[in-house]
Fold this protein.
Amino acid sequence: MSLTREDDPVVLPDDPSFGPEVQIDYPGYRSTRWRAPDRPLATLPEELHRPDGPVFGEHAIDPFDNDLTAQHEGEPLGERIVVTGRVLDEDGRAIRNALVEVWQANAAGRYRHEVDLHPAPLDPNFSGAGRCLTDGEGRYRFVTVKPGAYPWGNHENAWRPAHIHFSIFGRAFTQRLVTQMYFPGDPLFAYDPIFNSVRDPKARELLVARFAIETTEPAWALGYEWDVVLRRTLFE
Ligand SMILES: [Fe+2]
């Protein structure tokens, strides 16, 4: 299957708040054929948006949940990294106490999951999941290892660029963004239909973290910075 944009018949309007009448699947990413919404958006009950509705509380977070290298007896193999950034609204204001969750493959490109059949080793010292709340400046911070690329069955010789999955919850269950963070300079970008399903090249660049020497900790871990800007409507 070709992954070139020329083959992509989907056209999105400039307005990011596109409606359900716009096709949002992506031909190169096969499972979007079944996953992409093809019915009008449903409005959730008002009570789920209310500030006094069900939310996540701080008690659900362990102080060490954001260190994926410290969840077992030993340290995981791989390149130790710090991934940090701020969750902001469109006006650059910090979004505090947002629940940021991550999951990722280990350094060999293998998930600890029963459906991951990639013949790469599991790491007994790496589960690959973490979470934290953003602080008063909207900042999150994780310590982990750089995930490896892994093959997937989307098309012939398909490999995912190294990435970390992110989920960001606001203060209600209805306020959630799920996305992926990538690493700069990955040679697999051009071949990945998930990365390229974001049609706007400038928007795609926003999915790529920045190597940050100022975040890099001497003789310990490389640093990457990745900010997330949420549309105002998500958190209002
Ligand atoms: Fe993944």
Residues 32 and 218 are 42 Å apart (CA to CA).
